[in-house]
TrEMBL record:
Name the UniProt record assigns to this protein: FtsX-like permease family protein
Cross-referenced Pfam families: FtsX, MacB_PCD
Sorted UniProt keywords: Cell membrane, Membrane, Transmembrane, Transmembrane helix
InterPro entries: ABC3_permease_C, MacB_PCD, Macrolide_Exporter_MacB
Membrane topology type: Multi-pass membrane protein
Transmembrane segments: 21-46, 298-320, 354-379, 391-415, 440-461, 684-706, 727-753, 765-787
Cell compartments where the protein resides: Cell membrane
């Protein structure tokens, strides 16, 4: 047996063979390159989301302090924590450094230009923890002097039109800040994002508030990051912090009722989350004020889909290459007769397959490069690391692997060629077992297409349902304006009054945060006269809140501008979800009852229906509503055009808040924001589904053509024995109907299971049933029918006399 050795001559022969049949060559290279291109784009996205915070040095030693307050109903983990925990960490002996990070969304003004800026107030330890080095200037100076700021390069360009801005000044909330450093822009795949940094002692943070927060265990206000010493243990530091929380004033000042309710359970729990894993941290995903999060299961799924698409494209190439090998039986036989051994034949076929795979890889990379801007816009992520040297090397290696694997089956067919039979044009060249293998591969293609399409349709329908679900009020006539100040200020009150007088405006109400967005809120221990108590979150609103949102009471009355004062605390409204924890048998039973809110008393005047405050990814929370002017999110209701009202609002904002960039959007826009990750996932699944369907259609078309060619003699004999065109058509159609049914039987259960796993993240499901899976099956049946129809008609119209002359 000759040794297997591929040489340059084998590649030259392969290139000549490809040039000899340009049509066949174009089909196999283009088909495989499309699979490569889509696979590489999706894998680039997977790499992007899997590399969050990978640019931070020693990221495995950096941890975020996570916090959970168990006294509230349905407690959840927060990325925010009480600031005294930072001092606990510094005294523990376990950390090199620690920093608090307080996000501050402000408007910076340079001359007439105003720009929204995400500042972060940080300790000097930020520089050491995150390894941020200034492009120019002194970052330490910016973090230690109260009137200094460090801007990112991108923000410097926006504000000043150039990068070199040291010593320049900008106005933020009436304060003057001097640029002390220019920083590189944080990577887009980072959970720590900012446009600029200021010190903890910054003039932007009121000194009294800052002092109170660094002493209070009752408020969660900022993120705390720690960097462990090389030999320190996160578990040890976590226990030290947990002990400190257990001995804090928060626990000592608890009421006897709360202590009895908690029993041995910790009032507050502390965990350390590794920075390298925070993007996929399931604890804090979706919690208010948390960073961007992703689902690791979805990422694994996308990686699998990317490789699956490449596998399906490779299967098509294998089928086409096998057909081509059968047509080259005489050529292979001549080579064997002339002395070519197994090694020489194998080397030639491996070289040809490698050549096709590498050409397809190169073309796939070109496609990915050309489609990269479209893909970035589709997924709304800056996936810009596709053409780095490591990615190119991995792509080349993937091409080599595909080439070697794809060559195995055609090579096996070639090695089985017997020269006497091939030279005499006898023998099918493909055994029944080999033919069954190709059918199995086609079934795999259909199973993948059906499964992927079923999952895509299910998730797409659920996402559409969530985005269009009734939040508990009519959002169409509502416009939301997120002011930089609350209604207790002259500017905010003036803007509200002016907007209320605009044509078509039926009212302008205020709340503490937009509906549809996760919120922290303040929790009160609500206690009834009989001793029943529950910790419930408060939602401060203006007296006309329910009127503007068009919400009617379940019992009693809701707030009314004519009866309730703006800052009165003696009357409250509770939500329907608050009835159970307060042990009210019905909405009517709660009306008129007096309750204690901490040290104060209030009367329940009404019960409001539950509204979806945070979308369908979060369960409905019990809420108490109280009136207040300490609210800065306004909602205007109009009987006219909302777009025209938005223009009016923007005009008034320029008058009352000339130095601020303010968010103005329709009410449902905040709900849509909560489903951005779902929409992105559906888009990626859609791309994968379309590719899988197209590849499956091409695969079954090729198989149909081969089947008709292989069974041509049988068809002729049947026709000679009286079979009509309809009988022949049914013969061919029956075979492919069986293949499609087998693919459906394999793919649909997988689609059902994968869909159930994803839908478990929603608290309310669309009335789907099996409709998406049935629709996926219908799509595949139509595709299969279209792909096989031509060959079925060809077989039914086969003329025996003509066919016998070519057999």
């Amino acid at each position: 047996m000759q040794a297997l050795m591929i040489n340059l001559r084998d590649f030259r022969i392969g290139l000549r063979l490809l040039a000899k049949e340009p049509g066949y060559s174009a089909v196999i290279i283009l088909g495989l390159s499309i699979g490569f291109g889509v696979c590489l784009l999706m894998l680039a996205y997977v790499r992007y989301v899997s590399s969050y915070d990978a640019s931070v040095p020693d990221a495995d030693r950096i941890f975020l302090v996570k916090y959970k307050y168990n006294l509230i109903p349905k407690p959840q983990w927060f990325e925010l924590a009480p600031l005294p925990l930072m001092e606990v960490a510094l005294r523990s002996g376990q950390v090199e450094s620690a920093t608090a990070l307080n996000a501050m969304k402000v408007t910076a003004k340079v001359g007439p230009l105003a720009e929204a800026v995400e500042l972060a107030a940080a300790h000097p330890g930020f520089e050491q923890i995150f390894g941020v080095a200034a492009l120019e200037g002194d970052l330490h100076k910016a973090l230690t002097q109260p009137d200094m700021v460090a801007l990112t390069r991108g923000m410097a360009l926006k504000l000043f039109g150039r990068e070199h801005v040291l010593g320049r000044t900008l106005q933020v909330t009436g304060k003057t800040l001097t640029v002390a450093a220019v920083l590189p822009d944080p990577p887009s795949n980072s959970t720590v994002s900012y446009n600029g940094l200021v010190g903890i002692e910054t003039t932007l943070w009121p000194a009294e508030e800052r002092k109170m927060l660094f002493q209070s265990w009752s408020f969660i206000y900022a993120k705390i990051y720690v960097k462990l010493k090389p030999n320190a243990s996160a578990a040890v530091l976590g226990r030290i912090m947990q002990d400190a929380a257990a001995k804090s004033p928060l626990v000592h000042e608890m009421s006897a009722e709360d202590q009895a309710r908690m029993g041995r359970q910790a009032v507050a729990e502390i965990r350390l989350g590794a920075l390298s894993g925070m993007y996929f941290d399931a604890d804090t995903a979706g919690s208010p004020d948390s960073s961007e999060h992703g689902d690791i299961r979805a990422v694994y799924g996308l990686a699998g889909i990317a490789l699956l698409i490449l596998l399906l494209a490779t299967i098509n190439y294998v089928n086409l290459a096998t057909v081509r090998t059968l047509q080259r039986r005489r050529e292979v036989a001549v080579r064997k007769v002339l002395g070519a051994g197994v090694g020489r034949v194998a080397a030639q076929f491996l070289a040809e397959s490698l050549l096709v795979a590498l050409l397809a890889t190169a073309l796939g990379l070109l496609m990915a490069y050309l489609l990269q801007p479209v893909f970035i816009a589709l997924v709304d992520r800056k996936v810009d690391q596709l053409f780095t040297l490591p990615m190119l090397m991995w792509s080349l290696a993937l091409g080599v692997v595909v080439g070697l694997v794809a060559a195995l089956y055609p090579l096996w067919v070639a090695l089985r060629v017997r020269p006497p039979e091939a030279m005499a044009s006898r023998g099918a060249g493909e055994t029944v077992g080999a033919s069954s293998m190709r059918r199995l591969l086609t079934v795999l293609q259909f199973a993948a297409a059906i499964g992927l399409t079923g999952v895509t349709l299910t998730i797409a329908y659920q996402t559409r349902f969530a985005m269009q679900s009734d939040p508990g009020f009519n959002a169409d006539p509502l416009l939301v304006v997120n002011l930089p100040a609350n209604l207790s200020t002259r500017e905010a009150a003036g803007f509200r009054a002016a907007l209320s007088q605009a044509p078509g405006v039926d009212g302008v109400a205020g709340a503490q945060s937009p509906l549809g967005v996760g919120f922290t809120g303040r929790f009160y221990t609500v206690t009834r006269d009989d001793g029943t108590s529950a910790s419930i979150v408060a939602r401060p609103v203006t007296p006309n809140f329910f009127d503007v949102y068009g919400i009617a009471p379940l019992a009693g009355r809701l707030f009314d501008s004519r009866r309730d004062q703006a800052d009165a605390q003696d009357n409250i409204v509770i939500s329907a979800a608050a009835l159970r924890p307060l042990h009210f048998a019905s909405p009517e039973a709660a009306i008129g009852k007096s309750v204690r809110l901490g040290a104060n008393s209030a009367t329940i005047v009404g019960v409001a229906p539950d509204i979806k405050l945070e979308g369908l990814h979060k369960a409905t929370r019990a809420v108490i509503y109280s009136t207040s002017t300490e609210v800065g999110v306004l909602t205007a209701r109009t009987s006219g055009d909302v777009a025209a009202l938005a223009e009016t609002a923007n005009g008034l904002l320029r008058q009352y808040f000339p130095n601020d960039v303010i968010d103005v959007r329709r009410a449902y826009g905040h709900y849509a924001q909560g489903y951005a990750e779902d929409v992105r996932f559906v888009k990626l699944l859609g791309v994968g589904s379309v590719m899988a369907i197209a590849i499956a259609a091409f695969g079954i078309y090729v198989l149909a053509a081969c089947t008709v060619q292989r069974r041509e003699r049988e068809i002729v004999i049947r026709k000679l024995h009286g079979a009509n065109a309809r009988a022949i058509g049914l013969l061919i159609a029956r075979e492919f109907a069986l293949l499609t049914a087998t693919g459906a039987a394999a793919g649909l259960p997988v689609a059902w299971y994968a869909s159930r796993v994803y839908l478990a993240t929603f608290v309310e499901l669309a009335p789907l049933g099996m409709l998406p899976l049935a629709a996926a099956l219908l799509v595949i049946l139509v595709v299969a029918l279209g792909a096989t129809l031509t060959q079925t008609v060809k077989a039914s119209r086969l003329v025996p006399a003509v066919a016998l002359r070519t057999l």
